[in-house]
């Protein structure tokens, strides 16, 4: 048995015999979900990173503690990585929309927003609706600078991911630079409910994991004064 | 918590493979880095860039997950609520950093399964300091303060590197490390300025850890073709000696001001050169430990392996075979 | 004992001991992300106990650190459920599920306590506890409907843990006064709400809910009678603190 300074490890009863080689199976760590958070009410959702999880509900549990345990947060979205369509990356001064294939077959998005039967979008989202049967909502994210994080710019209605990028180009293509665009079906996201915002209510009070809670200069000065 | 891109074990003679790369793409890639733009996962990149980044980020990730163990040793024994909760939060952060870094490495094409497999089979390196034990609470405090301080010196440098996902992970990590550093300093100051028992515990722990701390940034870099290329590509951002000197400059005075001593009679700052002088660390011993023969190597790997084995049934139960694995995006 | 003290000690000791136990998983969890989530909830439990010990301090008891780190097992009022070693993850998750449902319902009831400082704490922690229960339910449902191996493990853990969980609701001599003064709705009422709440979740799994009311509760914890595991836990927890009780750590 390995004797450890850690009582927890001694309880595990670790063998000190040489261990045989082992290999993890594929998907031992599951697939991944991409996570977006909202820092404050009304702010755009921003990409924070992935979590490994078997299903969206578990991904949400994981994302909440990995990405929002330290700083103020008012909302969280998770979406399967595989559900996101990604454009080419371009330079920091360019627009990724310029790399999209020129299309003639897709309908240009109609500026009509009064189509019945579409899901009611939340107020803060910019919506471009085409109002076509078989179309669905897509969330669009822009990367403004390499090394920074993708940000939500709005929703569009489209019949396919490729179409969604075309619609997004019409709606948001004026913005520059756009280094990269992500599009994903809105239905593929799991989003925190507004009524569950209180799960973050006490985060700012957890000072023990905040640098500003540790002020030790007085103690140092006192020690120096006593020992000089 | 990670020391440096360990260029000391890079090949000095092996080919860089650059002659096999498309010269036009290579020129564009280098021009992008020279302009100060970051490289993102879908960009074209030379095989050597990908390989070295995977190696570095993976080692960094392993250093976080293994690095949670020496401080985790005191997680059930931290004295008082304030320390108990902070120690838990700090150890948790190290696991969180591992998660962020494994994800960044994954964007380059190595799966987390492969990286964890290499770790638990002893095939991967991690920061050598974590192969030393923490026999007292004070040892844990020394890590919290000084190993994290060293790691921050390195990580702040690397956060200016060229690979986007690694930079994003490091920005987040550095923000969290600010708490670690303050917490560690607070704990050390309380011990050093406290009762005789506390003071003695802290001095003993510092004496134990100092030789390992001096090796944290690795031996002086060998200037090789590889090193030069990695610096040009902003993979390696500062030399090991620069990092070590910066660390000594920032922290030795803070150690001395609370009445602690360091077990190196030759340690002093040369005011003319601005460089610290010290007894050369025992690099032979460093090599021996990093190659597996340190006091805790076997335990660290055995613990990680046990955690993976004990959790296997949980992961088996939740696995959804229909899942299509794709690399994380950014 | 004064009913307020009686109630607070039971709540605070439960949270301290379970938070301590769950922190033992830190670095050893089944997957990195879960390791992080479980640690957060353990930290929350420690935080809850600290707030409750602080209320006790306002009522004239010793400082939270002194109360938490210097008493011995017979002076603790926690239920035996929280003392048990962490075991394997099925047990720790089941304990988390059974305990946190009771905790959420307890704090919901305490939000209208006549003891206003406690009511304030209870209201503030609501969101935190909501996440804890969401976490517990998600795991229970996932594992309870997963592989044969997982279902068997969870069933075994549920059967083993339920009698201990019933010990959460062990009454003390102060119970009648606690109810009559409006401090709290009482343990019997809490138990019936809890049973309804956990039964609903278990019904969504392949697990069978034992006939809970026919089980003999593992009681005694509230009277200072504990398992053989509590004193070693306390000795370990206070190992550094007791090196120099005069020190400021």
Automatic annotation (TrEMBL), chain A:
InterPro entries, sorted: PaaB, PaaB_sf
Source species, domain of life: Bacteria
Pfam family membership, one: PaaB
Name under which the protein is recorded: Phenylacetic acid degradation b
Organism expressing this protein natively: Hymenobacter montanus
Automatic annotation (TrEMBL), chain B:
Entry keyword set: Oxidoreductase
InterPro entries listed in its UniProt record: Aromatic_CoA_ox/epox, Ferritin-like, Ferritin-like_SF, PaaA, PaaA_PaaC
Keyword Oxidoreductase listed: yes
SUPFAM superfamilies the UniProt entry points to: Ferritin-like
GO molecular function terms listed in the Swiss-Prot or TrEMBL record: phenylacetyl-CoA 1,2-epoxidase activity
EC number(s) reported in the record: 1.14.13.149
A Gene Ontology term for the protein's cellular component: cytosol
GO biological process: phenylacetate catabolic process
Pfam families: PaaA_PaaC
Domain of life: Bacteria
Entries under PANTHER family matching the protein: 1,2-PHENYLACETYL-COA EPOXIDASE, SUBUNIT A (PTHR30458:SF2), PHENYLACETIC ACID DEGRADATION PROTEIN PAA (PTHR30458)
Name of this protein: 1,2-phenylacetyl-CoA epoxidase subunit A
Organism (species): Hymenobacter montanus
Taxonomy of the source species: Bacteria, Pseudomonadati, Bacteroidota, Cytophagia, Cytophagales
TrEMBL record, chain C:
GO biological process, one term: phenylacetate catabolic process
Gene3D superfamilies: 1.20.1260.10
Pfam families (UniProt xref): PaaA_PaaC (PF05138)
Listed GO CC annotations: cytosol
Classification via InterPro entries: Aromatic_CoA_ox/epox, Ferritin-like, Ferritin-like_SF, PaaA_PaaC, PaaC
NCBIfam families found in the cross-reference section: PA_CoA_Oxy3
PANTHER family in the record: 1,2-PHENYLACETYL-COA EPOXIDASE, SUBUNIT C, PHENYLACETIC ACID DEGRADATION PROTEIN PAA
Name of protein: Phenylacetate-CoA oxygenase subunit PaaC
Organism: Hymenobacter montanus
